[in-house]
Amino acid sequence: MTALFGPTDEEAHVTPAPPPHPTADTVTDQFLGHRELMFSVIYNLLGSVAETEGALQEVWLAWSARHREPDAEPVHNARAHLVRIAANRALARRADMSRGRETYIGSRLPELR
After folding, report:
1. How far apart (Å, rounded) are the C-alpha atoms in residues 12 and 14?
2. Are 89 and 55 in contact (CB under 8 A)?
3. Measured between alpha carbons, how far is 67 from 70 in angstroms, rounded to an integer?
4. Which residues fall within 8 angstroms of residue 45, CB to CB, at 6 or more apart?
5. Which DSSP symbol is given to 6?
6. For the chain, which has fewer Cβ within 10 Å, the N-terminal or C-terminal residue?
7. pLDDT at residue 42 greater than cutoff 60
8. What is the pTM of this model?
9. Dist. CA 18–CA 15, nearest whole Å
10. What is the pLDDT of residues 44-102, one digit of tens each?
11. Which stretches of 1-113 are DSSP H helices?
């Protein structure tokens, strides 16, 4: 009857339990399920497949390390969390790349012919 008339008074006052701590397989499946989306977000920011793959590795390391911590808060929306990590890593890499282009470490400028 709840589906027809909405939640009862008892059901309305019950707060949902947080999601259980995911297993290693669940963490991997969540990452792989959103890998294509993260790849497109990172690639659009960086424009290089090699840099994108490097950033994705950093996202995986951050995602898996987060789930190894026993006192970590549960992630309620894995897609949003992973995309946020991916965008932040891509922006950090892009800033590093632009800093590298600005700094000339040679002793002199190359000769022009």
Report:
1. 6
2. yes
3. 7
4. 87, 90, 91, 94
5. -
6. C
7. yes
8. 0.68
9. 9
10. 999 999 999 999 999 999 999 998 888 888 889 999 999 999 999 999 999 988 776 66
11. 2-5, 9-12, 24-33, 35-46, 49-68, 78-102
3-state secondary structure of 14: coil
Structure-token pair, residue 80: 């949003």
Q: Sign of the C-alpha dihedral, residues 76, 64, 43, 88?
A: positive
Neighbouring C-beta atoms of residue 41, cutoff 10 Å: 20
Residue 36: closest CA among 68, 91, 70, 82: 82
CA distances from 5 to 1, 9, 13, 55, 101 (A): 6, 11, 16, 48, 63
Q: Exposure pattern of 68-98 as b/e (b: 16+ CB <10 Å)?
A: eeeeeeebeebeebbbebbbebbeebbeeee
Residues 6+ apart with CB under 8 A from 79: 34, 37
Q: Who's near 30: CB < 8 A, 6+ residues apart?
A: 22, 63, 78, 82
How does DSSP classify residue 34? T
Distance CA 30, CA 40 (A): 16
